[in-house]
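User: I would dearly like some help making sense of a protein record. This is the protein in question:
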Amino acid sequence: MWRSWIFIYFFKSAFCLGSRTAASKTCFWRCLLSICARSVMLARKGLLPDGFLLTRLAEDQNQPNRSRARSQRARFITKTGSCNVAHKNIREQGRFLQDVFTTMVDLKWQHSLLIFTSAFLCSWMLFAMIWWLLAFAHGDLEPRDPDNDPDPVPCVTAIHSFTSAFLFSIEVQVTIGFGGRMVTEECPVAIIMLIVQNILGLIINAVMLGCVFMKTAQANRRAETLIFSRNAVVATRNGRPTFMFRVGDLRKSMIISATVQLQVIRRTVTTEGEVIPVCQLDIQVENPLRSNGIFLVSPLIISHTIERGSPLYDLSAQSLAAEDLEIIVILEGVVETTGISMQARTSYTPEEILWGRRFVSIITEEDGRYCVDYSKFGNTVPVRMSSLSAKELDQTRGVQEGTSETHLQGWGLVRAGRGGFRRGGRACDGSAPQPWYAQSESQEMDAEQKGQKKKVQLEVIGRQVEEDGPGDASD
C-alpha cells in the first residue's frame, strides 16, 4: 500500500519537474513535501519501515540540531541488538573446530546451506567410488557375452559404470529404493558397506536437522517482536532527575521471568593513569514493580533515578552532547511457548537521550479491557525541568538548607532536676553560651546568701544552634 503511494507521488513530481515552468516547480516541491509527510505518517502507524530514506529525512528536520558536525561515535551495541565488535588476529583458529555444532549454528544461512550441500555430495561421491571399486574388484564391470555361460552373481545388480554406482549410493543413503539395483549375498564386504553408509547418512541428517532447528529457534528471533523506544528521556519524577525508556512486547505469548539490566559504557582513566576504553558500570533499575523483574504484559517505562552513586550523577543538559558514553539495555527471559532463554539488547547514545521530556500515555481502557496504541509508543512531550545535573541540584539544595538552619531556634531536650524530660529551647541571641552547671552554681550561691530555700533548676542538654565567634568556641 505505502509503496503505491510513494510511487504515485514520485511520478507526479517527476512530471511536474519536466514542464520547466514556475508552476511546475511549485508543484514539484509540494509533491516532495507530501511524500515526506505521508512517509512520516505511515512510519508512525507502523506501515513503513523505520529505515526508509524520506522518513528519516523528515524526522531529522523535526529534531533539534544535536551537534551533527561531530564525528560519529562507534556504538558498542547497535539499535538492533547486535554487538559492534570485530575480532581480529585470532591465532588459535582450531578452537572453533572443537565445537563444530556451535560453529555451524553461528554461521550465516548461505554458509550453512553450502556446508549441508557439500556434506551430502561428498558422502554420495565417496560411497559411489567405493561401490564402483567393489564392482570392479569382483569383475562386475567386465563385458559379458550373452551367448556363453550365464553371468555370475554380481555384488550389486545393475552397476555398469561410475554413474550407476553414484545413483545406487544416493538410493542407499536417502533410502529411495527404486528397485533396479540391490545388494546380493555374493559379497559380504558390500553388505558391510551398506550398513556403514546407512549409519553415516543418519548421522549427517541428524546433525543438519539439529543445526536448522537451532538456527530457526535462536533467542534473537523471539527478540524481533520486543521493541524499545528509539529515544530515552531524562525528566523529573518524584522530585529527582530520572532516566527513562519504554519497552514493549508485540506478541500475546509472554516472556517468563523477564529481567532488565542497564550498563553504562564509557572511557575512563584510573588514578594510576591507565586508560580503559570500554568500562562497564551497572545502573540500578527501578520499574513499577520496584525490582529488576518485570511483568511485560503491556509496554512499561523502565526508569533509573539519578542520585549519588549513579554513573549519570554528573550529567547535565549542557554536558550531555559532549559525553562519550553509551547506555546498554539488556532484557532477558524465557519464551513461554518454547521454553528457550532469550535476550534482547539495544543502546542509547547521547544523541538519543532527550533532556526535559517524558513519554506520553498509550494505554486506555475500552469496552472492559486495556488497549495499547503502539502508534504513540515513542512519542514524547516536553516538561519543565532544570538543566543542571543531579550533583549540582544536590549542592544547591544543600546550601539552601544550610542557610535556613542558621535562622532556626535551638530546640533540644530539657531535663528536670528530678529526672523528668520536656522539650524546650531559646532563641539564638548571639551571646556567649553558658554551661548549665555555671548557671546553677551561681543561683545556688545567691540563694544561700539570701537564706532562701534552694530551688531545683532545669538542665538543658539539647543542641543549641548559635552563631558564636572563634573566642566563644574555645570556651
About this structure: Residues 45-70, 403-441, 452-475 have pLDDT under 50 and may be disordered.
